[in-house]
Amino acid sequence: MTILLFLIPISLVVALCFLGFLLVSIKKGQFDDDYTPSVRILFDDEKMTKTNKK
Amino acid sequence: MATEVLEAVKCYHCGSECEQQVLVYDEKSFCCDGCKSVYQLLSENNLCNYYDLTSNPGKKISGLGNRFEYLDDEDIKNELIAFRTREMSKISFNIPDMHCSSCIYLLENLSRINKGIITSTVDFLKKEIHITFNEQIISLRETAELLAGLGYLPEVKLNRAEEEVKKKKNKTLLYKIAIAGFSAGNIMLFSFPEYLSVFDKVDIEIQNFLGIISLILALPVTLYCASDYHISAFKAIRRGMLNIDLPISFGMLANTTKSAFDILTFTGPGYFDSITGLIFFLLIGKWFQNKTFESLSFEKDYKYYFPVAVTKIKDGQEVSVPLKNVKTGDTLLIRNQELIPADAVLLNGVANIDYSFVTGESVPVTGERGTKLFAGGRQLGPAIEVSVLKEVAESYLVQLWNQELYVKKEKNKIKRFTDFIGKYFVLLVLIISVATFVYWIRIDTNLAFKALTSVLIIACPCTLALAIPFAFGNGLRTLGTKGMFLKNAEVIGKLADADTIVFDKTGTITETDAADIQYEGMEMTSHEISLLKTALKNSTHPFSKLIYQSIQGAEYGKVESYKEIVSAGFEAMVENNRIKVGSATFVTGLPSEKNGLTSRVYISVNDQVKGYYSIKNKYREGITDMIRSLAGKYELHLISGDQESEKETLNKLFDSKVKLNFNQSPTDKLNYIKSLQAEGKKVLMIGDGLNDTGALKQSNVGISVTDKEYNFFPSCDTIIQAKDLYKLSNLLKYCKKSYWVVVASLIISLLYNIFAIGYAVTALLTPLVAAILMPVSSIAVVLFVVGGTNYFRNKLL
User: What does the pLDDT look like over B74-89, one tens digit per residue?
Assistant: First the structure.
């Protein structure tokens, strides 16, 4: 069972890394707007195909 | 390109019916040049996807008041532009007209229309657009004009600093939730051996080790994540008051101390799992609340209603100056439809000021040179020149706001109930916990601590603190998606309380501008039409306004004399011609013919009867059904500023129980509501917000009906979109049910508290049970209120 004393801190360090990533992503504004990106991704990228029609 | 006139077709751009003309371009029909030119611009730039994503996504372009000259002012630019280098500037605008995915598509592709725009990003829920542009190619003013030209009139707000503070606060809350969630989850995991220790003894070494890790993880949560509660509780104590945050804060601190003590002395595992879990849930509740408020900004900031800049006359030249730079003694030019920003004296021109925004009185006040004009009035008619008496911040309107006249003092039952709980519950819990402690300390110190903390943990009024934000927050969101926007969550309680509904007629149950107007009679010369139009301008009767808008022609300058006879019509002298407008009896001398839904306005020029305008009110769709379904449950009243001409039709349309009142001035409306309230009734007023401002303010809860989203007035609590008005009956029912869900959850949590405290004082409650009960009770309440409100949403809406 003493192996737990070693494994738990390691798992905690891994988890802390993920917490760190989450905090960074909050700071970068990933959670500021949780609606628009869901619409934006559905727009077709038609820039290339239609410009030659001009 | 061909332009021709066709039968009523829908505009390809904005979807409204083409009433006056149909412009055909590229095999598509448009209702006006504005819509057509937007289409042209988009098709030239290959942005026609705009029309594929949603049909008729555009907004009709109204050429009114899109003045952006002030954006050339360096002071204003510096204030607005967040980041500025030679080739890159960043600006954010609010765009209230943003409403569908097509809007997002177009607004994010602005760079294809103008090369000066580098990127544009939309935040749909906040209705914001963030634009990065190159000032060498396109100026700030041109950017704003580009948006306005596309039908997205940008709103410029000068309180960028405040917005940034708000944003920062929001982010801080997210950090706190992240940390609290992380710690709570991990600590719960580390507590598993403890939970299972009933079956299997835990290795003491591992338990102590896990305890210390929990302590390290929990400290940031109780100290940083819950800091808002501690600060609020501390402030309450300093003011000698009790609030609902106090026992939460006190319980958390007491438990933290006790748990830390237990862990450090290796006497027990502590309760960090339940404390961190509690904080996590409380913070989520808060976030939920914030999120709902974000999408509806009901800011009661006077700056919001005022223009950003005004036109100042300096050495005979018109200059645009920021509002805050307006000094006493400045001469300002106020154009048609512009607000008077500060108290002023009229210098030039004829003032015709509409103060409905301030006083609720819709009849414009006229004034000659030397008249004192108050801030908040809106000039109707030709431009005037005024001299400023007071600076913006001192003016009348600002004082009104600072007096918090718009805050309705009366609290609803739920609010009173929670305030009561906040005060007495806290006190009671503190007394019980101390009494328990004193009782047990004589027997066993350890048991005494155990009992004290159990009482504090278990009695946390967190269930009370959670129920209301979750239930009403959910309600707010649900109603928002159904076209009804509430000022705050408390309004749900007020809506549920109401027992009497007062309707305004014009603009509320009838459509504002959509009356059918037809002229019948002799053809009038353009001279006569101009005479008529000039005369009509003076009358404030809704019919006069409608006719005025419907006829086209030039206007003459001045009306020589004007006499209005109430309930009959008016007589005016224009260019030495006598114009009479009004009822049949008044104009022709013959008795009027009754003709169902239409009202007739007769016209005579120099005593020669020309004919009449027949005006037919259009009632909003579904209004009859709505009134019928409301009639059983509420006492209904109708107040109208119009004459009784439509009494019979209204009687037919509505139940005979509806009390009809005609010829009511805005003040009458206000007094009518006062008298109903004097009878002890809770009055819900529904008006269109213009001439009903006073009545809306007086009522217990005021709903304003708007054809345009986000067009609101400081005195109403709720906005409902006109097209959703027919749902009112169900919406009100939903409010009532949500209210009962909250009441039920409060009763449940109260019962829970009584039993749990009763059990906890006996010191029989083991930390294990307390730790499990606590989060379970919070989750149960949240699930109950969210599930309950969602159930009624699915059933009713």
Answer: 777 877 787 778 788 8
Residue B613: beta bridge partners? Answer: B519, B601
Chosen from B52, B125, B283 to mutate, greatest number of chain A CBs within 10 A: B125
Q: Which long-range contacts (CB under 8 A, 24 or more apart) does B676-682 make?
A: B676/B500, B676/B502, B676/B637, B681/B499, B681/B500, B681/B635, B682/B497, B682/B498, B682/B499, B682/B500
- Contact list, B26 vs chain A (CB under 8 Å): none
CB atoms within 10 A of CB B406: 14
Nearest-angstrom CA–CA distance, B283 and B177: 6
Q: What is the pTM of this model?
A: 0.60
Query: Which one is predicted more confidently, B589 or A46?
Result: B589
Q: Does ipTM exceed 0.90?
A: no
CA distance B162 to chain A (A): 17
pLDDT tens-digit series, residues B724-757: 788 888 888 888 888 888 888 888 887 888 888 8
Asked whether the beta carbons of residue B179 and residue A26 sit closer than 8 angstroms, the reply is no
Question: Are B206 and A1 within 8 A, CB to CB?
Answer: yes
Which amino acid, B384?
I
| A7 lies within 8 A of chain B by CB | no
How far is B712 from B705, CA to CA, in rounded Å?
9
Whether the CB-CB separation of B769 and B271 falls below 8 Å is answered with no
Contact B178 A15 (CB under 8 A): no
- Confidence at residue B401, expressed as pLDDT on a 0 to 100 scale: 44
Cβ-Cβ contacts under 8 Å, A43 against chain B: 49, 53, 105
What residues of chain B, 165 to 224, have a C-beta less than 8 Å from chain A? Answer: 167, 170-171, 174-175, 178-179, 182, 186, 190, 203, 205-206, 209-210, 213
Query: Helix, strand or coil for residue B570?
Result: strand
Which helix (H) or strand (E) element contains residue B427? helix B426-441
pLDDT for residue B797: 74
Cα dihedral: B628, B633, B634, B636 (round 10) = 20
How far is Cα B219 from Cα B215, in angstroms, rounded to an integer? 6
